[in-house]
Design a protein that fits this description.
By secondary structure, this protein is an alpha+beta fold. Helix content is about 35%, strand content about 25%. The strands form five sheets. Strands 1, 4, 5, 6, 8, 9, 10, 11 and 12 form a nine-stranded mixed sheet that branches.
Length: about 400
């Protein structure tokens, strides 16, 4: 791929690798980083060929994932589409509908806008898996402001053509997939996207892995692209939810007592009432919960917060709840470094975070979701929000279509 071409947003066709099993819903899974141990065991038991055997083979078992991939290809569990194509993908359920394009996104383009920092451990984990398997099993999730030819094609295909895949998962979500192989339609999509930008909504660690994998190789090749799901946010606005924290080693009473030196703390016997207060709070605010009454933290001492903030960040970045959490509350108030070991995360469900905190004798830190506008503005300024600040949805299902370097 020429450097001039990489400057724009490129989504190119590929030979999709897809399951050829009777119960397709049973071999799919959520994204790898949303699967907890109990769910992993359930997915493994759901079908002998579930995709978690590829995406979560266990630490140091990446060679096993590679062997499994080749075995399934040889046995016909997985097949390779004969024609390269882009794939229209639709998710629908109660109260939502999302459609987009799955293809190979050009890696290293300034048209791809990350908005979130990454940690080295997850990148190293995904890089080891991709190096061993020479494959992209899960698409990253990209958002762009479109309204052009690509958007119209997506809706035309979804409403007028017969799908390759039509399944409903146990979660009640309907998934459909179509292949677009007509060269004229593929060229029209490329022309429409060429001058656009795309925000990484989900998959920052995987995109960082794509970049690292590309640096492994000197010449052009399949590593110049990574599997991606591209959605026009003007047609299908995303659902942006919070990612809550659980701090296992910090008892709730101690967390609250230390926070009172810098925050206004209001006690609530019920977590639900504290969450109602959080939803209407202005400025940085959090709920601390676990064993005992919940507490709503609001109105932090502005001087203490300002002293904690890194130099050079914009005012909007400094006002983000997750910025205040990771630069002030965690390190300055509680003396905790934000890492995967010391700070656990729970997507979306505040009560699940509280339950986890109670089991571990720690503290759940419950957050409001960031606004999409804040995220877009920060990303456009070249800044990145702290890790695990956003959870855009609905996320693509893993296992519907995959990509291997040998077939692309």
């Amino acid at each position: 791929m020429e450097s001039s071409e990489r400057a724009g947003l490129v989504i190119r066709p590929f030979h999709g690798v897809r399951y050829a099993v009777d119960n397709l819903a049973a071999v799919t899974s959520p994204p790898y980083d949303l699967i907890f141990p109990d769910e992993l065991r359930e997915l493994l038991g759901r079908h002998p060929n579930n995709v978690v055997r590829l995406i979560l083979p266990g630490t140091s078992h990446y060679g096993e994932a590679s062997a499994t991939l080749h075995e399934w290809l040889a046995d016909g569990v997985l097949t390779v589409d004969s024609q390269p194509g882009l794939y229209v993908y639709e998710q629908s359920g109660v109260g939502f509908l999302q459609r987009g394009l799955i293809g190979g996104v050009g890696v290293g383009s300034p048209a791809i806008l990350p908005h979130e920092n990454v940690l080295p451990e997850p990148v190293a984990d995904r890089l080891a898996l991709m190096r061993a398997t020479q494959a992209n099993f899960e698409p990253i999730f990209l958002l762009y402001e479109g309204g052009g030819t690509a958007s119209r094609l997506v809706d035309d295909v979804a409403t007028q053509r017969f799908p390759l895949v039509d399944i409903r998962t146990r979660e009640g979500v309907h998934h459909r997939l179509w292949a677009v192989t007509d060269p004229h339609e593929i060229d029209a999509v490329a022309e429409d996207l060429r001058d656009r930008h795309a925000l990484i909504a989900d998959g920052h660690h995987r995109y960082a892995t794509y970049e690292a994998l590309r640096k492994d190789h000197m010449g052009p090749g399949p590593w110049d692209y990574g599997l991606a799901y591209l959605v026009d946010s003007t047609v299908y606005p995303p659902d942006l939810r919070a990612i809550h924290r659980v701090i296992p080693g910090l008892p709730l009473q101690e967390a609250v007592a230390r926070a009172k030196g810098a925050w206004q703390a209001q006690e609530f016997p019920l977590v639900e009432d504290a969450l109602a207060g959080l939803a209407t709070a202005t400025g940085p605010a959090f709920v601390l919960a676990g064993e005992g009454p919940a507490h709503l933290l609001t109105d932090p001492d502005p001087l203490q917060v300002e002293r904690a903030m890194p130099a050079g960040q914009s005012h909007r970045w400094r006002m983000l709840d997750t910025s205040v959490l990771t630069t002030f509350l965690l390190p300055k108030v509680w003396g905790i470094t934000d890492s995967e070991q010391s700070v656990m995360v729970v997507h979306h469900d505040p009560l699940a975070a509280v339950d986890m905190a109670r089991r571990l004798g720690g503290t759940a830190v419950l957050l409001n979701p960031l606004s999409t506008e804040d995220v877009l503005t920060v990303a456009a300024q070249g800044e990145r929000v702290p890790r695990k600040s956003t959870s855009f949805g609905p996320k693509p299902r893993t296992g519907l279509v995959m990509r291997t370097f040998a077939t692309d």
